[in-house]
Amino acid sequence: MHSFPPQEIPWNWIIYFTLNSLFAFPMVLWTTRLLLFRQVGKNEEHETISPRRTKSKIIGCVIPSISIGTSLIPCFFYLPFLLVARFSLRSYLGILLFITFGSIICGMLLRGLPEARGPAIRTQCRNNLKQIGIAVHSYHEFNGQLPSPSYLSENYTPTSWRVYLLPYMGATDLWKGYDSNQTWDSPANASTLASRPSFYNCAAVPDDETLKTVTHYAVVTGQGTVHPPEGPLTLTQVQEGDGTSNTIYASEVSGVQIPWTEPRDIDVDKLPLGINLPGKQRGQSEGTFSSYHKEGAFFLMCDGSVQLIDEDIDPQILKALTTTNGNEHVNLYDLP
């Protein structure tokens, strides 16, 4: 079994840091005056190692070279910094300390940039589910009931709610290009499948050509859920049960890998209940809910709010949140 989300080995960063450190090494040697230039001819010069060098001094240059190489800045951008060190400091040890601590500080500042991107990605994912929630409530206002997970055309071909709600989400042109009398994977609907809207994509999921058509959100179906086998409910029915704020409508399902136009969602009666459960294949989860966010998975509640729930949540509590009339009262603010 493979854990989810998969732990990627950052080979691209490993190669970058290694090459950056190797290129930084001669630059540090030059800064510490262990690598000198001498005139050979009238118009010719080449590099030679100063006779003053010692093996220990050369080895000492490895540490600042690595500190430069492992920062997010290419070593050549450190050249002004190294020029200051070479011509302002006379002590070999002082130069090494200046380079080492300076590059460490720069690296720490720049490493905060990817971490700052995390909240932006979470906000985008949350907004995607909010947009879905607004479309669901708009549909309910016009039709008097919640959307069905799928709709049958005149020839009984099912169409996913993700396609059917496109006009409610400002994607009318994409909806017009879909032939509901053809199956979701037919050649007639291939262009629509390849045009996945941004609101069905979570930016936390790594870029992969095989996942370009996959949705990262699905509704909850199954006995006792907001989408029971007997048909769609109304918000009034949900409110009279466990309450719209305590009932899950949709969630992140990145590990299930459902093509966005396929009329398939999460059946809590058939899948193991949990968040980020391991899967048989890398990048897949066999559980009901799955997300690439480190903090847990986002859930769209029936009242339109979006909640972040930790993957370590008690399965019994998670089960209670999927039902509409189980007489369970869960305080989401008390969850881990």
Number of domains: 2
Radius of gyration, in Å, reads 29 Å
How are the strands of the biggest sheet laid out side by side? 9-6-7-10-11
Number of helices: 10
Spatial separation of the terminal alpha carbons: 26 Å
Number of strands: 11
Which descriptors would you attach to this protein?
single chain, 336 residues, alpha+beta, 2 domains, 5-stranded mixed beta sheet, two-stranded antiparallel sheet, 10 helices, 37% helix, 12% strand
Describe this structure in words.
The strands form four sheets. The protein has a five-stranded mixed beta sheet. A two-stranded antiparallel ribbon has the order 1-2. The protein has a two-stranded antiparallel ribbon with strand order 3-4. Helix 1 runs parallel beside helix 4 and helix 3 packs parallel to helix 5. It is elongated and about 85 Å long. A hairpin with a 5-residue loop joins strand 3 and strand 4. By secondary structure, it is of the alpha+beta class. The protein has two domains: 102 residues, no CATH class; 214 residues, no CATH class.
